[in-house]
Every structure is written in C-alpha cells, then in structure tokens.
Amino acid sequence: MANFISEDKIEAVKNAADIVEVVSEYVSLKKTGRNYSGLCPFHSEKTPSFTVSPEKQIFHCFGCNTGGNVFSFLMKQDGLSFPEAVRFLAKRYGIDLPAAKMSGRMRQQISEREQLIRINRMALDFFHRKLCGDRQGQKALDYLKGRGITKKVVDEFKLGYAPRSWDALLNFLRGRRVPVDMIEKSGLIIARKDKTGFYDRFRDRIIFPIVNMSMQTVGFGGRVMDDSLPKYLNSPETPVYNKRRLLYGLQAARKKCRENNILYIVEGYFDQLALYQKGIQNVAATLGTALTPEHIHMMKGFVKQAVLIFDSDEAGVKASERSVGMFIREGVQARIAMLPEGHDPDSFVSEKGPGAFYKLAENAMEVMSFLMRVAETKHGLSVNGKLRILDDLCPAMASITDANARQLYARELSEWLGIDEKAVLEKIRNSLAAAEREGRLAGRRAAKLRDDGGTRSSRGGEPSTKVFANRLERQVVAMMLQYPAMLSEIEASGVLDYFMDDTLAGLGRFILEHRPEEAKGVSNLISMVDDAEKRNILASLSLKEEMWNRRDCRKIISKLIANSPKRREISLKEQISMAEKENNPDLVLKLLEELQKKTISSRNQMNAVLREQ
C-alpha cells in the first residue's frame, strides 16, 4: 500500500510529525529524563511502562512489548492501515499528498477498510446535504431546531437526514460506481429477504455520523422524528465500526477533557449535543451499549475522572453496577450523578442551565457509595433487607481485582450494615469464586471452539522464533541500533552467523543493509518493516539504552561467538568446504555426520533456552 504514496512524501510526513504531540492526544505523558512515559493505551496497567522517545521518534511499552513509530502507533490505536495513517498525519501537518493515478488493478488492491471509510464519507456528505440543502430535509431541520440544536452544532457534527425512500442512498452510491457488495459490508444497506435486491438501512431518520479518534466516519446512528420503533438505529458491526471501542463525540471532547481532566458520559446523541452546545464540551455518549472495558481503557489516556450522568431508573442503576470493577481496574475515578425524576441531560440543561449541571456533577457520588444508597432505598435496613443488600453489592465488589480496594470496601460495607467484616469478605469470596468458575467455563468453551476450528497449537512443535533469544544476541542487536559506529566491525566479525534466533539474526542483517546513522534512523527502519512483532523488537531494543564503547562492544561480540552453539557447526562447515576442495569424500561424509548431530544438539539447546525465558 505504501506504493500509492511516494517514499519522499512518506518521509516528509514522518519528519514533520512529532510523536510526542500525536501520542499525547491519547495518553497522558510525563517527562522522565530524555523520554516521556505514561500508562499504556494497549493494555491495563497501574504503573507506567509506556515510553516515548522524542529523539528517536518511537514508542515502546515494556509491559506488553508493543512498539513502533508514529505511523505504527496510529495503526495500532485506531486500527488504521499504513496509507490511512500517513494521510491522517499529512492532513494534520499541512503536507499535500497528490492523488496518485491508479490502474484498475491498483484500485482493486486498496484495502477493504479504506474502501469502507470512503463509502462512509460519501454517505456522510449525502446525508448532510439532504438535511441542509434539500427540500426533503426541511422536516428534519425543523425537528432539530425544535430540540434546540443550533446550525453551528449541525455543521460541526455533520448531522444529516436519510430520506424516506427505500433506495435513495443505494442509488446515490451506485451512481458513483461503488460496488454493491461493499455498500452492504458497510452496513448502509440490507439484503431483501426474497433476495431480489437491497434497501437502505436508514430511512426518514435524523443521522448522527459516528467518528473515531482519527476523525474518520466509521458508522452512523439514526433517530426517528415520531413514536416509531425502534427509536434509535445504529450501524451494525463492520471492519471499521465496533461500538465497544467508540463513544459518540469523544473526538470533539478530547481538548476539553485535557483541560478539565474529567469526562461526562451520557447515554444518547441528543444528550451529548445538548451539553456540548451549552459549553459543556467534555462530554461523550455511549452508542446503544453499556460501558465496556475498552471504553474506559480508551478514555483513561486523557482523563483521570469520569462522571456518569444516568437517568434515575433501574437501567441507570444497573449500568452503574456493571461499571464498578471496570473503572477501578483501569485506575479511573468514577462518580455517578443521578438526574431528578423526569429529566434527561438534554431536558435538564435546557431547563436549569449549565450552572445547575456543574453543581449536579460536583455532588456526584463515588460509585460504591452510590450503589449502597440505592440498595438501602430498595431494600431497607431490616435484617432481611441487609441480606438482600449483601446479595446486590457483593458481586460488584467481587469484580474489583485490587485486593486492598476490595477489603476497604468490605470494611465500609460491614460498618454500614453492622455485619461482621469476615462474613462480608466470605460473601465476596463466594461471589468471586462463582465468577471465576464461570470464567473458566467460558475459557473452556472458547478453547473448544478454537480446537474445533482446527487452530489448536501443536505441542510437539518447536517454540516460535518470535520468542526472544538469549541476552547476548539481544545486546548485539541493541548495540547495532544504538551505537552505529560498531556496524562495520559487526559485519566483519560475522557474529550474526552465530545467532540461534532467526528473527534477531534477520533483523541484524536488515540493520546492516539500511544502517541507521542518525537518531531518527530507528523510526525509519520501523517504517520499512511490515511485521508488527519485528517492529516491537526494534523499538524495545533501541530504547533500552546502555553506555556503549568499543571495548565493551567487542567483548560482547567475542563472548557471543565463543559461547554460541553454532560455533562448532560453522567450524565443521569450513572443514567440509576444505575437504571438498581437497577431494576427500571420506572426510566429507564423516564431517557431515558430525554436523548433523551437532545441528540437532544445538537446536535442543536453543529450545531449552527458550523454555527458560
């Protein structure tokens, strides 16, 4: 795919982009010496192990071993293809990327993801024009005005209208030669049950484009303007749309979130828009689903606190219960603000104003305290009521993975209910054991499905070469990345021939071929590597800095050669070559037999090393 963007343009984009600036939009970074560190956006952790090097323009997490350059980060974080990451950064840094002339065959090679993003962009323009510049959209425009949505917000969020017609969008896209199978894959059309064709998914609805953090339209939500059901309709899951990883309006809320270090979470599109246009811009909405670990993991990059604005009904309480463990596991402080009966965020802020909303949010309760209050209101504090409260709260407490936090909550609950702390802890342990049993059963079911699908790993096979080899080989590759002055000596020594790990040896030869002579050389190397695991290795070894000097480097090289299981193999190969030149077939056969035995022995040694790591 890189062939569609010239190498000089890719280089210009990479040189213009500042990885610290880009990553900071997803992760809260702190200066630590020459580098920056923060909580990894790719796995759950409480102690920062995610490092960004402004000098080398790379990142690496020493917890989950993910690393790369600025392109790699966007590809991993937002699921972008390489060309998409380049184009996103080019637009951000004002670099013009001329549209390449592509043959029919090249067009076919464009990734499915890119095609879907393009289709969504075309649909976005279609819906927005129908709302703002077409007579058909007047009813929808009047409806939005009636809900208090301003023209400014309509334009900023690119709200739209889907005509009542069964195939208006389908015909529009067909007219632009978009393949019907790709339109169907985008979720914008649905196949007729009688298999006679397709019809538009969204009809006579207000359209809310759903945008990811890279400002790409990945899906749509639609709302009726009357009492028809379903009231809301969202795009189905597609290769670019996953509602577990998206919050409506988060891309627009990011700047305010960083300023205030807090995110307000509501449940609907209109709730988000109503708060946003009243100046409460650090707000996002769930997309017809409960909060997920992915949502919380995503938001923790730029906020430390979330306030959930829920309706005061049973559904709101249930949503709070499900969220407890997830917020605590991710280290994000969560509080719950319950709206007065009869209000949603939209009606509340419209009637009471932003000041009343901020006061409501300031008085929001910490999650466990909120659940205790709700349980007391529901069951009372009779003996039977207390037992029911325990039944309600212990599963939520069991979802807390931090044992210290769990014990503190248990103590608070025992004091509040006047029940022995040991009894409360025992009840929580029972809930935890039940959850673990269910988890094991789910794991077995998943394993069975994998096995039935023929994906069971071969236990008799050799360990993957992706497993890192011994320390000396890693040191040599790190030396090559961090101390390029040794590259000529490394090449002359032939030390890479003595490597047991094929992946590290291959990377060593790759480095010799492309020679990273300056600080950003590692970032350039990473751009040339397609394999994610190899990019991770390059990033990891380039960031584990040491004080290099020629004397110590030579010692490492000599030590590796002297201790390599391949030393005898190489010597035997040299002897075989000499015996062949001397026309000594008996000696050649003898040496070949010894070489075969040595090769098997070396491989067994390597397997043992890998098992110990």
Could you characterize what this model shows?
The chain is built from 28 helices and 16 strands. With 613 residues, it is of the alpha+beta class. The protein has 5 domains: 2-104, Alpha-Beta Complex (DNA Primase, Chain A); 112-241, DNA primase, catalytic core, N-terminal domain (DNA primase DNAg catalytic core, N-terminal domain), CATH 3.90.980; 250-379, Dna Topoisomerase Vi A Subunit, Chain: A, domain 2, CATH 3.40.1360; 381-452; 471-612. The chain has a 5-stranded antiparallel β-sheet with strand order 1-2-3-4-5. The chain has a 5-stranded mixed β-sheet with strand order 13-12-14-15-16, with helices on both faces. α15 (345-352) crosses α16 (354-362), α18 (383-398) packs across α20 and α21 (471-482) runs parallel beside α23. The longest helix is centred in the last third of the chain and has 32 residues, at 421-452.
Determine the mean pLDDT: 83
Residue windows where pLDDT falls under 50 for at least 5 positions: 449-469, 609-613
Distance between the first and last residues' Cα: 36 Å
Radius of gyration from the alpha-carbon trace, in angstroms: 30 Å
Number of strands: 16
Backbone structural class: alpha+beta
Strand portion: 5-15%
Given the C-alpha coordinates, what overall shape results? globular
Please give the count of helices: 28
Main sheet record = 5 strands, antiparallel
Strand order of the largest sheet: 1-2-3-4-5
How many separate structural domains?
Answer: 5
Oligomer: single chain
Portion of residues within helices = 55-70%
